[in-house]
Amino acid sequence: MTTKPIVGITMGDPASIGPEIAIKALLDPAVYDSCNPILVGDAGVFTDIAQRLGLAVSIHPVTQVSDAFFTPGTVDVYDLNNVDLSQLRFGEISAMAGGAAFAAVKTVIELALAGAVDATVTGPINKKSINEAGHHFAGHTEIYAHYTNTKKYGMLLVEEQMKVIHVSTHVSLRQACDLVKKDRILEVIDLLHNGLISLGEENLKIGVAGLNPHAGDSGLFGTEDDQEILPAVEEAHRRGYDVDGPVPADTLFSKAATGYYGGIVAMYHDQGHIPFKLTGFKWNAAKQQMDSVKGVNITMGLPIIRTSVDHGTAFEIAGKGVASPDAMLLAIESAVKLARQRVKEIKSESDKE
């Protein structure tokens, strides 16, 4: 890795706020102080949004990372040239947009596996558009796991003191309950512990949420807490982890927000996402828009680094110039931190040899 890590950033769905927040993030000189960023997607899409919004940047298309300038004011784009701007409509689901978004993700994974970029950051995608393009994945996490051949992985959400990883993510609630198993919970505890270390966190105390109300209340409201979650927590103790659980979720997250826990294991998607977004997402009712959208999604367990904004495509405001780049800036910051930590770990292992 060079002095500054090279970070590949995907455009997300071209009909979404993805291209807008990517360019806005690169208008911040601090990004170039910490890394060498390169966008991955259609250069024409970035040129169009920059002109529409009057953003003071020059778009520099390249076909290989080595041709990038990495200069503030000039946005390098690894150009896939796969969007027909005459057919693109902001806020609309389409196979063309989904195909372009998917191609950007697949390409940045390939660049990372080849060592051309040191970390990857993803913009928001629309799952229906991607599926209409013939790519049948539930989301970014599953795409990354597939193309890196990763079997054990987890979605870690990070926003200041709130750090949440999930036992299951993009499945139905009925399926999620069936996936609450001891082995998977242990696997996720391990991923979270390693993730906290990679992020440089000192507080490694982990709280594990119960599945049922009151964590089952000794079997009165379900048996999963006693039969699957508690044995996993007990085994984690034996392995040396500082872990509590199962803790009723309505109590667990209020304590997590104060910094009591370094990280939380949620049993399913909404159990973790709702309290997390209450912390990082700030809606301005008077202006009818978000004042800030903070939160980073990190996929743990991959052989490459992947962080992402933890918000959707926001089709309703696409192309209007009001989208906040806060989450993109935080995702880039986290990617840089993880890239530098990975270099330290590699050097440490080399020194031992």
Highlighted features:
single chain, 353 residues, alpha/beta, Isopropylmalate Dehydrogenase, two-stranded antiparallel ribbon, 12 helices, 14 strands, oxidoreductase
Q: Could you write a compact summary of the structure shown?
A:
The chain is 41% helix and 19% strand.
Could you explain the architecture of this structure?
This is 4-hydroxythreonine-4-phosphate dehydrogenase PdxA. Keywords: Metal-binding, NAD, Oxidoreductase. GO terms for molecular function: metal ion binding; NAD binding; oxidoreductase activity. It holds the Pfam family PdxA. The protein has 353 residues and is an alpha/beta fold. It has two domains: 1-150 and 308-353, Isopropylmalate Dehydrogenase; 151-301, Isopropylmalate Dehydrogenase (3-Layer(aba) Sandwich), CATH 3.40.718.10. It contains twelve helices and 14 strands. The protein has helices at residues 18-26, 29-34, 43-53, 95-113, 127-132, 140-147, 173-178, 182-198, 224-238, 249-256, 269-280, 326-352; strands spanning 6-10, 36-41, 58-62, 74-79, 119-122, 154-159, 162-166, 206-209, 243-247, 263-266, 281-284, 289-293, 296-300, 306-309. The strands form two sheets. The protein has a twelve-stranded mixed sheet with strand order 3-4-2-1-5-14-13-6-7-10-8-9, sandwiched between helices. Helix 9 links the parallel strand 8 and strand 9. Helix 4 (95-113) packs across helix 6 (140-147) and helix 8 crosses helix 9 (224-238). The radius of gyration is 20 Å and the shape is globular. The model has no long low-confidence stretch (mean pLDDT 93).
